[in-house]
Specification:
about 160 residues; alpha/beta; 1 helix
Length: about 160
């Protein structure tokens, strides 16, 4: 073996590691940044609409909406769960027919082989009898408005309780 040269086995190992690193980068990178009016001299009228930001839906249905989105090299599974307010927290009156006054959202982001976004929307309603504002409860493992992973308190971003 000459000085400064590596064996073919070591070279093959290094090439394999570079290929593996390249694959990992492709999996975890969100998408390529497109030129927009914010990051270039292109006027807003000549840029494409950003479809990666979901529009807000004002729905009163319960349960999960599941959307599987594939953007370029992104693999994302996104779910939205609505948790309704059914009774007033003060007087116990039935609030199922009352219009929701606001919706608060918490989001859990988990990356396994694909990025998984789980949005939990809770309702707030005002009781027509006693005028108490009642808010549904988030699941116990959702500690803040944005968290990564399974709910460990070390992984919470912006924890507000």
């Amino acid at each position: 073996m000459k000085t400064g040269k590596v064996s073919s086995d070591v070279a093959a190992l290094i090439n394999t590691l570079f290929i593996l690193f390249s694959i990992v980068l492709r999996i975890f990178l969100e998408k390529q940044t497109k030129k927009t009016s914010a990051n270039s001299s292109i006027p807003p009228s000549q840029t494409e609409k950003d479809d990666s930001t979901p529009s807000q839906k004002n729905t009163n249905k319960n349960g999960r909406d599941e959307t599987i989105t594939t953007l370029g090299n992104t693999r994302t599974v996104e779910t939205i769960t609505a948790i309704p307010v059914t009774n007033c927290s003060k007087c116990g009156e039935d609030l199922t027919g009352i219009e929701c006054t606001c919706i608060e959202r918490r989001t859990r982001i988990d990356i396994i082989f694909e990025k998984t976004l789980e949005h939990i929307d809770i309702e707030s309603k005002e009781c027509p009898s006693c005028h108490t504002s009642t808010k549904a409860s988030f699941p116990n493992d959702m500690h803040g408005p944005l968290q990564y992973g399974n709910g460990d308190t070390d992984a919470v971003i912006g924890s507000h309780g």
